[in-house]
Specification:
heterodimer, A: 671 residues, alpha+beta, Flavocytochrome C3, Chain A, domain 1, Methane Monooxygenase Hydroxylase, Chain G, domain 1, five-stranded parallel sheet, 18 helices, 19 strands, globular, B: 250 residues, Ubiquitin-like (UB roll), Fumarate Reductase Iron-sulfur Protein, Chain B, domain 2, 2 domains, two-stranded antiparallel ribbon
Chain lengths: 671, 250
């Protein structure tokens, strides 16, 4: 018998959330003042949850490792946020958004949660506009929309290429109002290092003041983890340098199950690595694939000549280019979904056709689009005898109007002019769909401990659609958690202040201190980055875009090996009682070194290909889909939730079977 | 590339600091400025020395966490970028580079190149918001049309990343560009107009309390701002302030 109870409400899917809200317990306003809630992380999920809980009357303590809550990595999201507003009158609806999200997730998400997400999506836009978020508008003064990958309607709201920034600053402003009122106590430059469990319930955290090094005890009646994803287990990713899995991993070690760790999104259009000095990767918006054609040279001699700088890509003739996406997927071409485009780039580079010094880059070429737009514009302007140069000039103007800021960003980073020479791109780790297992109320398997946003596993299945991450973060924080947490806290109105002097706090603090002292006292010979880069390489090579049994088993072994060496040979300069960024990094890496192994274990057990998880053993063997990912609904239509048992390799899996009552399971095809 | 770095080292807020010299070699011109500092830090760790503390996070120019005063300019010699987007190809082999923290009375040094910018947050707490609860029962998002011109202006102001380059650059240590960006964003939108009077008075009052200087229209802040926030917003704030201070019954 599984230990997992997803607590999905009864009734038809469209009524579940309303019925649930009508039935759950509510805490009266006078009693809310007696209850404390801790929120870890101040991105879209944590920031919005903190503000909403404080508005309701709870006493909130919010924590972030940055110097201000406004800097959480939600701020870097570019494209937009989905909402089923149907302002464009193109047939959008709650059901359609629900359907697209479940299908996009390759049928590995929980139907009831996704439906609720679609249901509250429209409210998010109302809320953000009321807060003064400056979304793009048309000349009539109404909100503008654009379309995004994998859907047939225009439902994406945006603020140029800075939608995440504007939404986060909206949540930050709501937080600021509550901080000013004293309803949120904000702890900047603080890192949660453990959760404290008293009588089986989450009752507080141990945190380190990153400026002074002081170890602090904080108590509360409930703890919300909104600390983001774990993409930095790969070392190189589009995540911020400080993004980490420690809060999530600490609660996992205290009893919260970790679900589907192998579901990772690898985004196809990022600026490639330029050398070993590289510390992070930068995303280029998916929208570029609308006009860019992706290719590598057909002949190995050309590849070599390009790498040696003897040949320029523009000198390679049309017939000597391999437009491999158009070749393999004639119907979708360059617009195949993210997971497919990423795997195809890897396949060509593995075969030796990568076009930069590291061998890991393909071209994204706008020359066809520039000429096509140029001819169109010449026609409109009645320039019937325009020369090729003139057509190119006109075409560049059109492309600049569409993608100017992205082209400029690319040029700043690479020092190459993408109007004149093709961009170089390569896939990079971008988002993690897996995360802490939560029930319908967003509660983890630890009573009183919740997980929201990217930190939980619930809404994106095995692959996330563009513009859905922002939607989920804000839905969880503004509209779901503030209701569902009351159901739990209703039984806590007479509990009173939780003491931090209990043996449980004592013990948790002792363990935290012990680990920090241990890290400092190793006094080995290698820096934290040295080990992190090694872990990242194993993850990328063997647990990355394509996975197989042999590689995964090797990865598990190698990660254990790196972990052993880390605990014997890492060098952390400085002490505990001071500002010490190396100590912070060491603690985070210690957790990644465990998470990485569980990641590989999960990838090994899931012997099917679905969404971002591709097993080389599970491909279609014949017919039109030959060579493509093969999902196995008969054996794997479940959530794998892992229970910690002292060592990642001893983790025990619990299954939550996924049932699809409102959507029919189908194969995705892009041929 | 081979370079000589002159870096401000300061143990903590209470200790005195000084410039230290560090030679560094084999720097790739394609690396970012912060990746060059990563390289230096790994060398220092290998030698058993204390690495240089500096703030950074997203490394794509949007979080506003990174800072640094490089050769006398906030975010260094390039324009329209933060330090994390500054690339070493902007320098020449053999250069000496001076690296200091953002200096201002309202930004005390925490360690080395890391400063405390929480004064910026406190200005937002004083009024950088619209007083609307997150109930989900607000009116429909399209209920009030906003002229595109105003929406675009509000957006331009809202792109401020709160890094503090304007303050570090200003000879008066003024935060007017930063504060005016938020005041203007809300002043241009109907949702923010309702509280415009209280907002500008409260935010300016808090700005003064934090020890920021006044504006003397030099315009250096606009030049160094990585997001191109315009001086026009300072004019807008002055107008809002004048209106509020003379007309408001507060």
């Amino acid at each position: 018998m599984s230990k997992l109870d997803s607590k999905i409400p009864e009734g038809p899917i469209k009524d579940k959330w309303t019925n649930h809200k009508n039935k759950i317990n509510v805490v009266n306003p006078a009693n809310k003042r007696l209850i404390d809630v801790i929120v870890v992380g101040t991105g879209l999920a944590g920031g919005s949850a903190s503000a909403s809980l404080a508005e309701l009357g709870y006493n909130v303590k919010a924590f972030c490792y940055q110097d201000s809550p406004r800097r959480a990595h939600s701020i870097a999201a570019q494209g937009g946020i989905n909402a089923a507003k149907n302002y464009q009158n193109d047939g959008d609806s709650t059901y359609r958004l629900f359907y697209d999200t479940v299908k996009g997730g390759d049928y590995r998400a929980r139907e009831a949660n996704v439906y609720r997400l679609a249901e509250v999506s429209a409210n998010i836009i109302d809320q953000c506009v009321a807060q003064g978020v400056p979304f793009a508008r048309d000349y009539g003064g109404l909100l503008d929309n654009r379309s995004f990958g994998g859907v047939l309607v225009s439902r994406t709201f945006y603020a140029k290429g800075q939608t995440g920034q504007q939404l986060l600053l909206g949540a930050y402003s709501a937080m600021s109002r509550q901080i000013g009122k004293g309803k949120i106590k904000m702890y900047n430059r603080h890192e949660m290092l453990d959760v404290v469990i008293v009588d089986g319930k989450a009752r507080g955290i141990i945190a380190r003041n990153l400026v002074t090094g002081e170890i602090e005890r904080h108590s509360a009646h409930a703890v919300v983890i909104a600390s983001g994803g774990y993409g930095n287990v790969f070392f190189l990713s589009t995540n911020a340098m400080g993004s980490n899995a420690s809060a999530a991993w600490k609660i996992h070690k205290k009893g919260a199950f970790f679900a589907n760790p192998c579901y990772t999104q690898i985004h196809p259009t990022c600026i490639p690595r330029s050398g070993d000095h590289q510390s992070k990767l930068t995303l280029m918006s998916e929208s570029l694939r609308n006009d860019g054609r992706i290719w590598v040279p057909k002949n190995m001699e050309d590849v070599m000549a390009i790498r040696e700088g003897k040949l320029k890509p523009t000198q390679i003739k049309e017939e000597d280019r391999d437009y491999y996406l158009e070749r393999r997927y004639p119907a979708f071409g360059n617009l195949v979904p993210r997971d497919v485009a990423s795997r195809a780039a890897k396949e060509r580079c593995d075969a030796g056709f990568g076009v930069n010094a590291t061998g890991e880059a393909v071209y994204l070429d706008f020359s066809s689009a520039i000429m096509r737009y140029g001819k169109e514009k010449a026609m409109i302007q009645h320039e019937t005898n325009a020369s090729d140069d003139r057509i190119r000039e006109l075409g560049e103007q059109v492309v600049e109007a569409k993608y100017g800021n992205l082209f400029q960003m690319y040029e700043k980073i690479t020092d190459q002019n993408p109007y004149k020479t093709p961009m170089m791109i390569y896939p990079a780790v971008h988002y993690t769909m897996g995360g802490i297992w939560v029930d319908y109320n967003l509660m983890t398997t630890i009573p009183g401990c919740y997980a929201a946003g990217e930190a939980n596993f619930s809404d994106h299945g095995a692959n996330r659609l563009g513009a859905s991450a922002l939607m989920q973060g804000l839905a969880d924080g503004y509209f779901v958690l503030p209701y569902t947490i009351g159901d739990y806290l209703a039984s806590d109105i007479r509990t009173g202040k939780i003491s931090t002097e209990s043996p449980e706090f004592e013990q948790a603090e002792k363990e935290v201190r012990g680990q920090l002292e241990q890290l400092i006292n190793i006094k080995g010979t290698k820096s934290v980055d040295y080990f992190h880069k090694r872990l990242g390489k194993v993850m990328w090579d063997k647990v990355g875009m394509a996975r197989n049994e042999k590689g995964l088993k090797e990865a598990m072994e190698e990660i254990r090996q790196i972990r052993d060496e880390f605990w014997k040979d890492v060098r952390v300069p400085g002490g505990m009682d001071e500002f010490n960024p190396e100590l912070e990094k060491a603690g985070r890496l210690a957790d990644f070194l465990e998470l990485g192994e569980l990641f590989a274990i999960d990838a090994l057990h899931r012997n099917e290909s679905c969404g971002g998880h591709f097993r080389e053993e599970s491909v279609e063997e014949d017919g039109e889909q030959k060579g493509e990912a093969k999902r196995d609904d008969k054996n794997f239509a479940y959530v794998a939730a892992w229970e910690y048992k002292g060592d990642p390799k001893d983790a025990v899996m619990h299954k939550e079977e996924l049932t699809f009552n409102d959507i029919e399971l189908k194969q995705r095809s892009y041929k | 590339m081979n370079l000589t770095l002159k870096i401000w080292r300061q143990k903590d807020a209470k200790s005195a600091g000084k410039m230290e010299t560090y030679p560094i070699s084999n720097v790739s011109p394609d690396s970012s400025f912060l990746e060059m500092l990563d390289l230096l830090n790994n060398e220092l760790i290998d030698k058993g020395e204390d690495p240089v503390a500096f703030d950074h996070d997203c490394r794509e120019g949007i979080c506003g966490m990174c800072s640094l005063y490089i050769n006398g300019e906030a975010h260094g010699p390039d324009r329209g970028v933060t330090t994390c987007q500054l690339h070493m190809r902007m320098f020449k082999d053999g250069d000496t580079i001076y690296i200091e923290p953002f200096r201002s009375k309202a930004f005390p040094v925490i360690k080395d190149l890391v400063v405390d910018r929480s004064s910026f947050d406190r200005i937002q707490h004083a009024g950088g918001f619209v007083s609307v609860n997150t109930s989900g029962n607000t009116q429909d998002a399209n209920a009030i049309p906003v002229p595109k011109r105003d929406a675009d202006k509000a957006f331009d102001a809202a792109t401020c990343i709160g890094c503090g380059a304007c303050v570090a650059t200003c000879k008066n240590g003024s935060a007017m560009l930063y504060v005016s960006a938020k005041v203007s964003q809300f002043a241009y939108l109907p949702q923010g107009r309702v509280e415009a009077t209280e907002r500008v008075l409260n935010m300016v009052e808090q700005m003064d309390k934090e020890g920021f200087g006044n504006c003397t229209n030099t315009g250096a802040c606009e030049v160094e701002c990585p997001k191109g926030i315009s001086l026009e917003f300072i004019a807008k704030m002055n107008k809002e302030y004048l209106k509020a201070a003379t007309c408001a019954e507060k």
